[in-house]
């Protein structure tokens, strides 16, 4: 049996869902900064660089923190339900974002979008983990990250076609995310620990998560690992910051972003191919 045939259907469904989600996110995100600071004549909001920094920095930071909590919500209420809610928030946020022009309005809508993304992230990662085994985990996550980078590569390419009409960027992303409602029909929830008999309230679960985080941070080796990973991503993200600073011209900015994603895509393909070759040779 081919190594690719060892994965269940849910694994492949989850990967295609991830591809479309990243396609929609990066298609929007790569031109979002340009939309925030661009001239009103070109459909922009004319926010200052400081306002853009606060909005994208705080909003995105919250997005990447919340999965510690939203993962617990998914474990309690079910992956399918949380995915449906995430897609609903995604679509509504993309449709509503261009309707706001004040900093407060856009900031709140971006936070709303961040909640949708935070609900999505732990569920799809957990699905990949639960649909792979010790023998297929390496190639499984290699495929997963290849899908991430394929979506991130093609999303900006499509968005670039609509760069002169700012509102269409949001509507295209909403349309791409909507495809995941169809894929959700074929998504079979992987086995997870049922919490139906638990009498613990949700906020008590959250409190337990923060206590566990505190105990983990006492592990010196883990802290060193976090610093190494943080250092890597800090250096890698300088490329994205460079892209944002290159020009207010959306084409130049997106071209830079696409180039960086192409590098990531080639890296992911290599990550997938190496375990396959290793398996064949052993």
Mean pLDDT: 82
| Helix content estimate | over 70%
- pLDDT < 50 stretches: 271-282
Pairing-aware structural class of the strands and helices? mainly alpha
CATH class: Mainly Alpha
Per the CATH scheme, the topology name is: Growth Hormone, Chain: A
* Total beta strands: 0
Shape: globular
CATH superfamily name?
A: MFS general substrate transporter like domains
Main location: membrane
GO molecular function, one term: transmembrane transporter activity
Domain Major facilitator superfamily (MFS) profile: 1-192
Transmembrane segments: 53-75, 82-101, 107-129, 141-162, 168-187, 220-240, 252-276
Description:
The two termini are 14 Å apart. The chain is globular and about 55 Å long. The chain has ten helices and no strands. With 282 residues, the chain is mainly alpha-helical. The protein has one domain: MFS general substrate transporter like domains (Growth Hormone, Chain: A). Helix content is 77%, strand content 0%.
Compact description:
The chain has 282 residues and is mostly helical. 77% of the residues lie in helices and 0% in strands.
């Amino acid at each position: 049996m081919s190594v690719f045939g060892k994965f269940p259907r849910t694994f492949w469904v989850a990967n295609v869902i991830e591809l479309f989600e990243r396609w929609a996110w990066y298609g929007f995100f790569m031109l979002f900064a340009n939309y925030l600071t661009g001239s009103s004549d070109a459909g922009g909001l004319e926010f200052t660089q400081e306002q853009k920094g606060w909005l994208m920095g705080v909003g995105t930071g919250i997005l990447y923190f919340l999965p510690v909590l939203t993962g617990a919500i998914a474990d309690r209420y079910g992956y399918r339900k949380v995915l449906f809610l995430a897609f609903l928030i995604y679509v509504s946020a993309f449709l509503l974002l261009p309707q706001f022009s004040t900093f407060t309005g856009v900031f709140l809508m971006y936070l709303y979008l961040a909640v949708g993304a935070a609900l999505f992230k732990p569920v799809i990662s957990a699905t990949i983990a639960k649909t792979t085994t010790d023998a297929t985990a390496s190639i499984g996550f290699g495929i997963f990250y290849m899908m991430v980078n394929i979506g991130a590569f093609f999303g900006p390419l499509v968005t670039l076609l609509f760069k002169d009409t700012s509102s269409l960027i949001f509507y295209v992303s909403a349309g791409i995310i909507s495809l995941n409602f169809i894929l959700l029909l074929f998504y079979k929830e992987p086995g997870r620990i049922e919490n139906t008999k638990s009498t613990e309230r949700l906020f008590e679960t959250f409190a337990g998560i923060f206590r566990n985080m505190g105990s983990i941070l006492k592990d010196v080796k883990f802290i060193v690992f976090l610093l190494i990973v943080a250092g890597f991503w800090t250096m890698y993200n300088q490329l994205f910051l460079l892209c944002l600073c290159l020009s207010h011209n959306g084409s130049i900015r997106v071209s830079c972003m696409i180039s960086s994603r192409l590098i990531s895509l080639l890296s992911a393909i290599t990550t997938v191919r190496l375990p396959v070759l290793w398996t064949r040779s052993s």
